[in-house]
Write a structure and sequence with these properties.
The structure is a homodimer.
Chain A: E1 4-11, H1 17-31, E2 37-44, E3 51-58, H2 61-67, H3 73-80, E4 92-100
Antiparallel strand pairs in A: 1-3, 1-4, 2-3
Chain lengths: 102, 102
Protein backbone atom coordinates (compact mmCIF):
# COMPACT_ATOMS: atom_id res chain seq x y z
CA UNK A 1 0.00 0.00 0.00
CA UNK A 2 2.69 2.50 1.11
CA UNK A 3 0.38 5.46 1.44
CA UNK A 4 1.38 8.49 3.48
CA UNK A 5 -0.38 9.47 6.71
CA UNK A 6 0.21 12.78 8.45
CA UNK A 7 -1.03 13.67 11.94
CA UNK A 8 -0.80 17.41 12.48
CA UNK A 9 -1.84 19.79 15.23
CA UNK A 10 -2.27 23.56 15.17
CA UNK A 11 -2.71 25.52 18.38
CA UNK A 12 -4.71 28.72 18.27
CA UNK A 13 -4.35 31.83 20.34
CA UNK A 14 -6.96 31.79 23.13
CA UNK A 15 -10.44 32.40 21.74
CA UNK A 16 -9.54 31.54 18.15
CA UNK A 17 -9.87 27.76 18.07
CA UNK A 18 -13.30 27.81 16.40
CA UNK A 19 -12.17 30.24 13.71
CA UNK A 20 -9.08 28.12 13.03
CA UNK A 21 -11.19 24.97 12.77
CA UNK A 22 -13.55 26.72 10.33
CA UNK A 23 -10.61 27.66 8.08
CA UNK A 24 -9.32 24.09 8.12
CA UNK A 25 -12.75 22.73 7.27
CA UNK A 26 -12.77 25.06 4.26
CA UNK A 27 -9.31 23.80 3.34
CA UNK A 28 -10.55 20.21 3.51
CA UNK A 29 -13.12 20.96 0.81
CA UNK A 30 -10.39 22.25 -1.49
CA UNK A 31 -7.80 19.55 -0.88
CA UNK A 32 -10.41 16.77 -1.16
CA UNK A 33 -10.22 17.32 -4.91
CA UNK A 34 -6.42 17.29 -5.06
CA UNK A 35 -4.60 14.40 -6.70
CA UNK A 36 -3.94 11.53 -4.30
CA UNK A 37 -6.00 12.80 -1.35
CA UNK A 38 -7.66 9.91 0.46
CA UNK A 39 -8.47 11.46 3.82
CA UNK A 40 -8.39 14.95 5.29
CA UNK A 41 -10.27 15.25 8.56
CA UNK A 42 -10.34 17.94 11.21
CA UNK A 43 -10.71 17.09 14.89
CA UNK A 44 -10.55 18.47 18.36
CA UNK A 45 -9.52 17.15 21.74
CA UNK A 46 -11.44 18.10 24.89
CA UNK A 47 -8.15 17.90 26.82
CA UNK A 48 -6.52 20.50 24.56
CA UNK A 49 -9.28 22.99 23.70
CA UNK A 50 -7.03 25.53 21.96
CA UNK A 51 -5.83 23.08 19.32
CA UNK A 52 -7.16 21.73 16.05
CA UNK A 53 -6.01 18.33 14.79
CA UNK A 54 -5.62 17.30 11.16
CA UNK A 55 -5.29 13.70 9.99
CA UNK A 56 -4.44 13.26 6.31
CA UNK A 57 -3.87 10.24 4.08
CA UNK A 58 -2.31 10.66 0.64
CA UNK A 59 -1.18 8.28 -2.06
CA UNK A 60 2.30 9.73 -1.54
CA UNK A 61 4.15 12.44 0.36
CA UNK A 62 4.69 14.15 -2.99
CA UNK A 63 0.93 14.42 -3.48
CA UNK A 64 0.63 15.96 -0.01
CA UNK A 65 3.38 18.48 -0.69
CA UNK A 66 1.77 19.40 -4.00
CA UNK A 67 -1.57 20.04 -2.26
CA UNK A 68 -0.10 23.03 -0.44
CA UNK A 69 -0.05 24.73 -3.84
CA UNK A 70 -3.73 24.11 -4.65
CA UNK A 71 -5.51 27.35 -5.55
CA UNK A 72 -7.20 28.76 -2.48
CA UNK A 73 -5.19 26.70 -0.02
CA UNK A 74 -2.41 29.27 0.19
CA UNK A 75 -4.98 31.97 0.94
CA UNK A 76 -6.48 29.87 3.71
CA UNK A 77 -3.02 29.26 5.17
CA UNK A 78 -2.51 33.04 5.15
CA UNK A 79 -5.78 33.50 7.02
CA UNK A 80 -4.87 30.84 9.56
CA UNK A 81 -1.34 32.00 10.38
CA UNK A 82 -2.29 35.05 12.49
CA UNK A 83 -4.59 32.86 14.60
CA UNK A 84 -1.79 30.50 15.61
CA UNK A 85 -0.10 30.58 18.97
CA UNK A 86 3.39 30.07 17.56
CA UNK A 87 4.71 28.25 14.50
CA UNK A 88 3.09 24.92 13.58
CA UNK A 89 4.84 21.87 15.06
CA UNK A 90 6.12 19.26 12.66
CA UNK A 91 3.49 16.56 12.18
CA UNK A 92 3.87 12.84 12.72
CA UNK A 93 4.46 11.05 9.42
CA UNK A 94 3.59 7.39 8.97
CA UNK A 95 3.98 4.94 6.11
CA UNK A 96 0.79 2.92 5.79
CA UNK A 97 1.09 -0.84 5.44
CA UNK A 98 -2.59 -1.50 4.80
CA UNK A 99 -5.98 -1.59 6.41
CA UNK A 100 -9.57 -0.77 5.67
CA UNK A 101 -11.57 2.29 4.74
CA UNK A 102 -9.41 4.09 2.18
CA UNK B 1 -20.10 15.02 12.11
CA UNK B 2 -18.85 14.08 15.61
CA UNK B 3 -17.13 10.89 14.62
CA UNK B 4 -14.48 9.31 16.82
CA UNK B 5 -10.81 9.09 15.80
CA UNK B 6 -8.28 7.04 17.72
CA UNK B 7 -4.51 7.15 17.17
CA UNK B 8 -2.88 4.17 18.81
CA UNK B 9 0.64 2.78 18.95
CA UNK B 10 1.87 -0.67 19.94
CA UNK B 11 5.56 -1.33 20.52
CA UNK B 12 6.89 -4.82 19.84
CA UNK B 13 9.72 -6.63 21.49
CA UNK B 14 12.82 -6.41 19.29
CA UNK B 15 12.45 -8.56 16.18
CA UNK B 16 8.65 -8.85 16.41
CA UNK B 17 7.45 -5.70 14.69
CA UNK B 18 6.62 -7.44 11.41
CA UNK B 19 4.68 -10.20 13.14
CA UNK B 20 2.75 -7.62 15.16
CA UNK B 21 1.94 -5.63 12.01
CA UNK B 22 0.71 -8.81 10.30
CA UNK B 23 -1.67 -9.53 13.18
CA UNK B 24 -3.04 -6.00 13.06
CA UNK B 25 -3.56 -6.22 9.31
CA UNK B 26 -5.59 -9.38 9.92
CA UNK B 27 -7.56 -7.51 12.58
CA UNK B 28 -8.28 -4.71 10.11
CA UNK B 29 -10.03 -7.18 7.80
CA UNK B 30 -12.30 -8.29 10.63
CA UNK B 31 -13.12 -4.89 12.05
CA UNK B 32 -13.73 -3.41 8.60
CA UNK B 33 -17.07 -5.20 8.69
CA UNK B 34 -17.99 -4.00 12.18
CA UNK B 35 -20.79 -1.51 12.67
CA UNK B 36 -19.63 2.09 12.41
CA UNK B 37 -16.08 1.41 11.20
CA UNK B 38 -14.98 4.09 8.75
CA UNK B 39 -11.20 3.71 8.82
CA UNK B 40 -8.75 1.23 10.32
CA UNK B 41 -5.25 1.58 8.94
CA UNK B 42 -1.91 0.19 10.08
CA UNK B 43 1.29 2.18 9.72
CA UNK B 44 4.92 2.31 10.64
CA UNK B 45 7.40 5.04 11.37
CA UNK B 46 11.01 4.76 10.19
CA UNK B 47 12.06 6.70 13.31
CA UNK B 48 10.46 4.13 15.61
CA UNK B 49 11.04 0.74 13.91
CA UNK B 50 9.76 -1.40 16.80
CA UNK B 51 6.29 0.14 16.79
CA UNK B 52 3.11 -0.31 14.81
CA UNK B 53 0.62 2.55 14.51
CA UNK B 54 -3.13 2.23 14.20
CA UNK B 55 -5.44 5.05 13.08
CA UNK B 56 -9.15 4.34 13.42
CA UNK B 57 -12.29 6.33 12.66
CA UNK B 58 -15.66 5.20 13.98
CA UNK B 59 -19.16 6.62 13.95
CA UNK B 60 -18.92 6.66 17.75
CA UNK B 61 -16.69 5.59 20.60
CA UNK B 62 -19.35 3.03 21.49
CA UNK B 63 -18.94 1.42 18.06
CA UNK B 64 -15.19 1.27 18.62
CA UNK B 65 -15.57 -0.32 22.04
CA UNK B 66 -18.00 -2.86 20.63
CA UNK B 67 -15.51 -3.83 17.91
CA UNK B 68 -13.18 -5.31 20.52
CA UNK B 69 -15.80 -8.03 20.95
CA UNK B 70 -15.98 -8.96 17.24
CA UNK B 71 -15.42 -12.68 16.72
CA UNK B 72 -11.80 -13.32 15.92
CA UNK B 73 -10.59 -9.96 17.20
CA UNK B 74 -10.13 -11.23 20.75
CA UNK B 75 -8.06 -14.14 19.42
CA UNK B 76 -5.85 -11.76 17.47
CA UNK B 77 -5.41 -9.59 20.56
CA UNK B 78 -4.34 -12.72 22.45
CA UNK B 79 -1.78 -13.47 19.73
CA UNK B 80 -0.46 -9.93 19.79
CA UNK B 81 -0.07 -9.52 23.55
CA UNK B 82 3.07 -11.70 23.97
CA UNK B 83 4.78 -9.74 21.19
CA UNK B 84 4.38 -6.42 22.99
CA UNK B 85 7.18 -4.71 24.85
CA UNK B 86 4.99 -3.67 27.78
CA UNK B 87 1.31 -2.80 28.09
CA UNK B 88 -0.27 -0.74 25.27
CA UNK B 89 -0.23 3.02 25.88
CA UNK B 90 -3.54 4.81 25.91
CA UNK B 91 -4.30 6.16 22.44
CA UNK B 92 -5.06 9.73 21.45
CA UNK B 93 -8.81 10.25 21.09
CA UNK B 94 -10.20 13.00 18.88
CA UNK B 95 -13.70 14.21 18.11
CA UNK B 96 -14.00 14.83 14.39
CA UNK B 97 -15.58 18.07 13.24
CA UNK B 98 -15.63 17.25 9.54
CA UNK B 99 -13.47 16.86 6.50
CA UNK B 100 -13.16 14.73 3.42
CA UNK B 101 -12.64 11.07 2.63
CA UNK B 102 -14.89 9.26 5.10
Amino acid sequence: MNKYLLNGKLTAKPGHQEALAAILLQASELVATAKGCRLYVIGQNPDDPHSVYITEIWDSKADHDQSLKVEGVRELISQAMPLLDGPPAKGQELELLGGAGI
